[in-house]
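Slack export, channel: ligand-projects

TW: morning all. Re-posting the request from yesterday since it got buried. We need the structure predicted with the small molecule present, not the apo form. The ligand is zinc ion; the SMILES is in the block with the sequence. No rush, but it would help planning for next week.
GE: picking it up
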Amino acid sequence: MSYYVTTPIYYVNGEPHLGHAYSTIAADILARHMRQRGEDVFFLTGTDEHGEPVTQEAEREGVTPRELGDRYAPRFRQLAAKVEASNDFFIRTTDDGHMKRVQEIVQRVYDNGHVYEGVYEGWYCPRCADFKTESELVDGNRCPIHKIELTREKQDNWFFRLSTFQQPLERLFAERPDFVTPESRRNEALAFIRQGLQDVSLSRPTLKWGVPVPWDTEQVIYVWFDALLNYVTALGYARDGEDLTERYWPAFHILAKDILKFHAVYWPAFLMAAGIDPPKRMFIHGYLLMEGHKMSKSLGNVLDPDEVIAKYGADALRYYCFREVSFGQDGQISPAGFEARYEAELANEYGNLANRILSMVGRYRDGTVPEAEAEIELAADFEGAPERVPQLLDGAELTQALEEIWRLVRRLNQYVEETRPWDLAKDPAEAERLDRVLYGLAEGLRVTTLLLHAYMPESTSRLLEAIGEPGRELSRFGSRDGGQRIESLPPLFPKIDA
Ligand SMILES: [Zn+2]
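GE: finished. pasting the full C-alpha cell output, ligand included:
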C-alpha cells in the first residue's frame, strides 16, 4: 500500500518558526510510522513563493520576490532537516517542473468548461491574498484573521465555477465522513459549503509574480490554486524521468486551521474540475500558543525551536509538541512546561527506565536477555498495543497515540517497582522468576521503543541498537526470544543545567 503525506507549503516572507516546525513534525511522525508498517511512503514539504504576501515583503526589503525566495527557501529546508523530517522531496513553487504542471492542470479545468471571464468586486485582504465575504468580516470591514481594515477592490478576473461544485462537495463529505478531521473542522467546512458557494477568482491581473494563465498571459494564476496544486505537481517531477502520481496520489494533508477553507472546499472542487481524485483525507491542527509564558531556568521565556534543539535535541521538541497540546486543538506551551515534561517524562519515566533495564540485565544476567517467557500480568497489558496505536495514527491522532504508548512506559516502571528485581537477584530460588521479569522488561522496552521511534527517531535508534534490535518495524510483545546481548548506554535524555 502507498501512503502520501504532505505539509502545507510555507510562505517565504519571513523566518521559519515553531508553527512551521509543528506541521512538519506531525507529517514526519506519520511518514515514519507508516514506513515502519511497511507502507510505500512519500512525504512532501516545501515553500510557497508566489503571490502578494511574498511580493509585499520583497518590496519592503527592497529585493525581488525571487531573491526573497532564494533567501528563505533554504531556511525552511534547513528547519525540516533540523527537526529530523524525513521528507522525500522539497518543492518550491518557483520550480519549472511545478509551474509547467500548474499550467497544464489549469488548462484542463478551462477546457472542461469550469472557467469564465468576469469582474470581481469585494473586500480584499492582501495578507490572506483572498477576498472576504460580508459575513466573514469583523468590526466593520476588517479581516477576521489579520484584523486589518480591508478595501473594496474591483478586478477583471478569470473565475472558477466553484458554485457548480456544491452538490459534488456535499456528496463527497457525506460519502467520506472522515474526509476532514477533527469533526469540528469537518462541520465548519460543511457549513461553509451549505451556506452556498460563490465562484472564486482563478487569476490576478495586477500581479506579475506567479504562474501565467496559459490562455491569457497578462494574468497570473491566483496564488492559492498555484500553491494547492503543489501536492499533485510534485509527484510529476520529484524523481527524474519518473511520474509518481499513479503510485502515490491521493494524499493525506496535514494543515493548520487558518487554511481549512482552501483545502477542504476549493481544493477538492478544483481537482474534480480537472478530473483528478480529491485528496484521501486531511487533518486540521490548531495553534501552539505562547502567551503569559513562565520563565524556565535554561530556556528563558520564549520556546525557540533552535535553542531547544541545541540544548535538548530535536527528539525532545518533537515529543513535547504532541504531548503537551492535543493535536487538533489550540493549546498553551511554555519553556517551563517543556522543561517539566523533559525531566519528569523523558529523563525519568523513559530514559531512566531504559538505563535501569539495561543495567539490571548487565548486572544480573551478564548482559544477555534471558530466554524466558514474560509473566502474564505484564504481557496482558501489552496486548493490542500494536493495533491501537496504528489505528489512531491512521487518523493522525498523534496525541492520543502517544498517550497509548506512554501508558506502556508507565506500566513498565510500575512493573519494576512491583517485582523489585534487585531483591529477586539476592535469592537463588528466585532465579527463574528473575529471568521472566528481566525478559518481560527487555521485551516491553523493545516494543514500546519501536512504537516511539516515529516520534523520537534519534534517541530510540540509539536504544534499539543497545538492546540488539536491528529492525524498525512494529513488533508484538513476546515475538522476540531472549538471548540478545545488551550494551550499556549513556542517559538518553541527560539532565541539563542552565
Ligand atoms: Zn487576512
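GE: first-pass observations. Residues 125, 127-128, 143, 145-146 surround zinc ion (CB under 6 Å). The first strand starts at residue 2 and ends at 6.
TW: perfect, thank you
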